[in-house]
Amino acid sequence: MSKIILITGTSKGIGKAIANYYLKKDNIVIGCSRSESSINHKNYRHFSLEINNEIAVVNMIKNIKKEFQKIDILINNAGIASMNHILTTSIDTISKLFNTNFIGTFLFTREVSKVMMKQKNGRIINFTTVAKPLRLEGEAVYASSKAAIETFTQTASKELAPFNITVNAIGPTPIQTDLIKAIPKNKIDELLNKQTIKRFGTFEDIINVCDFFCDDKSNFITGQIIYLGGVNN
């Protein structure tokens, strides 16, 4: 039976790969990004917005509810990265990172949960990063924005459990996407060497965990954070 899946940040990279995967499995996918849609499929709907714009997010969820009456799965994929020493990090950079990564995740979780609460069922997947447990130099603010998402994930899982909504998070290792293009090669190599399995992650690795969290049999799994590549706290 097809599901209604909402994925943020679907214009490229991980979000686009996840969207295409679930479209191939005959689901209805709703995506969003700052830009116009880069996916052309009869079962895909796209919204162009800033994910930290409260009014835009509220209106988007209202429109989805009006058309489909439900939302089965929310994947909060949208995010931005920045690599700066704390001595050279501006307040503007901090605001952008937290507004996109944390506030965007919060707004979509809050609004979609209102829909899931009424249907008494739902799956929410958030995105963190291995930069958080590895305490990578140069990623203090980026990792902090994702640490906020981890705490939010675990607390939200308790608040939403009475409505049969699970909330979990995935922490990918570096994936070869635009997000890491600006990071020096030696920094990427240093990160990969800290992993138990020393390779880049793939879209398939991430989709595998999404499938696990979304599976009907995973209704007893919530408040969990899975880091890929064998990274430990």
Automatic annotation (TrEMBL):
Q: Which domain of life is it from?
A: Bacteria
Kindly give the InterPro entries that the UniProt entry links to this protein: NAD(P)-bd_dom_sf (IPR036291), SDR_fam (IPR002347)
Where in the sequence is the signal peptide annotated? Answer: none
One GO-annotated biological process of the protein: fatty acid biosynthetic process
Pfam families, alphabetically?
adh_short (PF00106)
Q: Give the matching CDD domains.
A: SDR_c (cd05233)
Q: One MF term in GO for this entry? A: quinone binding
- Keywords recorded for this protein, A-Z: Oxidoreductase
Q: Which family does it belong to?
A: Belongs to the short-chain dehydrogenases/reductases (SDR) family.
Q: What is this protein called?
A: Oxidoreductase
